[in-house]
UniProtKB/TrEMBL annotation:
Its main location: membrane. This is Ion transport domain-containing protein. Keywords: Membrane, Transmembrane, Transmembrane helix. GO terms for molecular function: monoatomic ion channel activity. GO terms for cellular component: membrane. It comes from Pleuronectes platessa. Residues 274-519 form the Ion transport domain. InterPro entries: Ion_trans_dom (IPR005821), Ryanodine_IP3_receptor (IPR015925).
Length: 669
């Protein structure tokens, strides 16, 4: 049946084998394989025994039956679990789960359907990796995702091997040397998103505690009232009961919050933060180990490790966690940037600046050039206008005077060092206020050098809504340079504030809008386009196969990954024809064996339409031929009848003429 899609071989096989007998053999082989799994046999030729185990034989027969079922509806109904013959549904469910089919394109551009057994190692592919590949695979210039998907297959295969080692299970090879099982690490590595969420939630919680209660010496342990302490214990017990009975996320959050509050008022805020930081550090270590194992970072070498940006990000996160635990709690604030990594919308905000970074940098350089030119003009013509109000830090003498002023101004009395009131009058209060007023309203020249002019225009001019004119001295209309000053302020406002800065803002806003459009287009493509062949949903309208059936059965992206894994793990001496062909194409990194803009269901439906049309024409031709043959028969019969009638008339004429000839007309009567 390999590479054959016509019904000739199928009819020949089904003629000698009944469908019910074929299904019964499949079920018996599966049951016999279960008995051998429960009672394993030891021997030197274990690999050969396993390759010819009853369960594998039954799987091969199931694949044969799956191919034959396309030509026999009775067999197709029997292979469905829960069908007419309900016994042995477990075997059919097992084989259906571990059987997949794909479509490939041969060198002569013909398409071929392949049904193959799914390797056992594919069970270790995590759901998180599936979602990551499905949503992050990029399209190439031709609009296909096959290239990026094929490149990620090696990483996914490494992840399967890592998960298999952690689980401690062996592939179906009969090898008795297995890696020791690591159930805890295996469970951790299969729930990476869960640990990432815990890290972020802990970072938010620790920053809230630091923001509200720093300095940490303010809250000590044991400062809670007895009734509040009892209330906290009750909240902990109630939330624990809710988590045990109904394990919902809200109940878990309530339990964590009540536990942390209990710790704060029992041992103090600083030990609680230290405990949370240590837990977050351990959690990140587990996450990083799982990440390294799933991605195969260590096995690819140190160069690949350094070039892996995501690995470096998680390593930096781990270093910041360590600094927060061992150096200072303010380092926890840096962990909040993880929100940018977790949320695609915020990541697009950052990309809106970095994608067109060259345009933004060049526009900023133009702004600096304009600031430099305006600084030169200001230094030459308006040096005396650059007078800015400043707030100087008073020296010790002025600080002492200011403190005296504050005491007289606020309370009307002074205080000694021992915090006792003194009885000096406040008659000098107005006099003492003057030095403070002078300090507050102090002004200085800020354009005595060109460098100071540049700094002033750059700092105050760009940050002021009306430009540099808002911070300079307000000139009088009687001054000779009044008109020049007005032109100077207006030019700076229009050229720098309105044009250049809005150019930068416009580039950022347009880039963000493009990123949002790309995101929406990407989501639309995922919903309406096949991942493998790129055909759109409308191509399957009014066809025998729907779009959902096409992406689930015919062109399931994970079935193609399973077939690639099968080619990797299978012995090359046991390859079938299609497997040898795909293995050779994979070695050459040739992706022409993937179907692009093609599907066998569409081709077969078109062929069926042509066949139906030809069949209708043949039927009409046969009907016409029958009519013609009937008419020919009738004409032949009519011709024969006319010939017979003519002969009869001739006979009658011949028989009647001799009597007339024997009568003598002259003989008397």
């Amino acid at each position: 049946m390999e590479s054959r899609h016509d019904s000739e071989n199928a009819e020949r096989i089904l003629y000698n084998m009944r469908p019910k007998e074929l299904v019964d053999v499949i079920k018996k082989a599966y049951m016999q394989g279960e008995i051998e799994v429960e009672e394993p046999q030891e021997g030197e030729d274990g690999e050969e025994e396993h390759s010819a185990s009853p369960r594998n034989v039954g799987h091969n027969i199931y694949i044969l039956a799956h191919q034959l079922a396309r030509h026999n509806k009775e067999l197709q109904a029997m292979l469905k679990p829960g069908g007419t013959y309900g016994e042995g549904d477990e075997a059919l469910e097992f084989y259906a789960k571990h059987t997949a089919q794909i479509e490939i394109v041969r060198l002569d551009r013909t398409m071929e359907q392949i049904v193959f057994p799914v390797p056992n190692i594919c069970e270790f592919l995590t759901q998180e990796s599936k979602l990551r590949v499905y949503y992050t695979t990029e399209r190439d210039e031709q609009g296909s995702k096959i290239n990026d998907f094929f490149l990620s297959a090696e990483d996914l295969f490494n992840e399967m091997n890592w998960q298999k080692k952690l689980r401690g299970t062996q592939e179906a090879t009969g090898n008795t040397n297995t890696v020791p099982s690591q159930p805890i690490l295996y469970w951790c590595s299969r729930n990476m998103s869960f640990w990432s969420s815990i890290s972020f939630n802990l970072a938010v919680l620790m920053n809230l505690l630091v923001a509200f209660f720093y300095p940490l010496e303010g809250i000590r342990g044991g400062t809670l009232e007895p009734h509040l302490s009892a209330l906290l214990w009750m909240a902990m017990l109630v939330s624990l009961a809710i988590v045990i009975v109904l394990p919902q996320p809200h109940g878990i959050r309530a339990l964590i919050a009540s536990t942390i509050l209990r710790l704060i008022f029992s041992v103090g805020l600083e030990p609680t933060l230290l405990l949370l930081g240590g837990f977050n550090l351990c959690n990140k270590v587990i996450f990083l180990m799982s990440y390294v194992g799933n991605r195969g970072t260590f096995t690819r070498g140190y160069r690949a490790m350094i070039m892996d940006v995501e690995f470096l990000y998680h390593l930096l996160y781990l270093i910041i966690c360590s600094l927060g635990v061992f150096v200072h709690v303010f380092f926890y604030s840096l962990l909040l940037f993880d929100l940018v990594y977790r949320e695609e919308t915020l990541l697009n905000v950052i990309k809106s600046v970095t994608r067109n970074g060259r345009s933004i940098v060049l526009t900023a350089v133009l702004a600096l050039i304009l600031v430099y030119l305006f600084s030169i003009v200001g230094y030459i013509f308006f040096k005396d206008d650059f007078i800015l109000a400043v707030d100087r830090i008073p020296n010790k003498t002025l600080e002492h005077g200011a403190s005296m002023v504050g005491e007289f101004f606020s309370g009307g009395a002074c205080q000694k060092e021992n915090r006792e009131n003194c009885s000096e009058p406040m008659v000098d209060a107005p006099i003492a206020i003057q030095p403070s007023a002078v300090v507050i309203e102090d002004k200085e020249r800020s354009c005595d050098s060109l460098l100071m002019c540049i700094v002033t225009v750059l700092s105050h001019g760009l940050r002021s809504g009306g430009g540099v004119g808002d911070v300079l001295r307000k000139p009088s209309k009687e001054e000779p340079l009044f008109a020049a000053r007005v032109i100077y302020d207006l030019l700076f406002f229009f050229m720098v504030i309105i044009i250049v800065l809005n150019l930068i803002f416009g580039v950022i806003i347009d880039t963000f809008a493009d990123l949002r459009s790309e995101k929406q287009k990407k989501e639309e493509i995922l919903k309406t386009t096949c991942f493998i062949c790129g055909l759109e949903r409308d191509k399957f309208d009014n066809k025998t196969v729907t779009f959902e059936e096409h992406i689930k059965v015919e062109h399931n992206m994970w079935h193609y990954l399973f077939f690639i894994v099968l080619v990797k793990v299978k012995d090359s001496t046991e390859y079938t024809g299609p497997e040898s062909y795909v293995a050779e194409m994979m070695r050459d990194h040739n992706l022409d064996w993937f179907p692009r803009m093609r599907a066998m269901s569409l081709v077969s439906s078109d062929a069926d339409g042509e066949q139906n049309e030809i069949r209708n024409l043949q039927e009409k031709l046969e009907t016409t031929m029958k009519l013609v043959s009937n008419l020919s028969g009738q004409l032949t019969e009519l011709k024969e009848q006319m010939t017979e009638q003519r002969k009869q008339k001739q006979r009658i004429g011949l028989l009647g003429h001799p009597q007339h000839m024997n009568v003598n007309p002259q003989q008397p009567a």
